[in-house]
Amino acid sequence: MTERQPFIAGNWKMHKTLAEARSLARDIRDGAAPGRRAEVALAPPYTALAAVAAELAGSNIRLAAQDTFWEKQGAYTGAISPAMLADVGCHYVIVGHSERRQHFGDTDAIVNKKLTAVVAAGLTPILCVGETKAEREADQTLQVVRRQLERGLGALQPATGTDLVVAYEPVWAIGTGLTATPDQAQAVHHFIRSLLREFLGPPAEAIRIQYGGSVTPDNAATLLAQPDIDGALVGGASLKPEMFLPIIAAAG
Ligand code: PGA
Asked: Which residue owns the Cα nearest ligand 1 atom 7?
């Protein structure tokens, strides 16, 4: 079996002033054991990327962006390109987060354009997929996840397959305090792994699949113990070092 390094990422969403972001980044940098097993990344809002990059310089914590636009540059008021994110020091870019799909109209086709642009810029996408409560209740979870993954990846080639992270985030579990049970999550992660094999071939074994949705220090260890759960994408609990650091520690 392929050994996959656990990957814990903090998605700060629309939180933190510059001073707060610097302070949180420092607390996480100083509190996360340098010899830990898990890879760690922080995704502050755009306004704090440069400041957080400066705090993380020389550490083994990576910088991530929460979204991007797909064009390289041009007259696109308000947009940020993957090249700009690379320039500020990002390694990862989240694409297809359910809040982008819900509030900003990101469709699967848009998600694919973003993912393609991120890969073209030499960055690694974290592709988010996940069903709503209504879709789960209608027994459509696997169908929805298949559609989001297939259309989101589009023509992504196996050669680039390993430069990809997938995050399974059931929409009903995000910010709600409801978490998928380890068995529920593992079942979908296992399904995602089989789809990655189908779409990308052998590189699928090395792709990390994170779970996201109300991950806390209390549930992190049991979720991460599942064979196809390779990390966590953490929202609310990533805003507090006393919550986020134990989640990192739970990954070993
Ligand atoms: P949550 O958010 O941990 O606050 O549920 C997760 C996410 O949206 O990535």
From this structure: 235
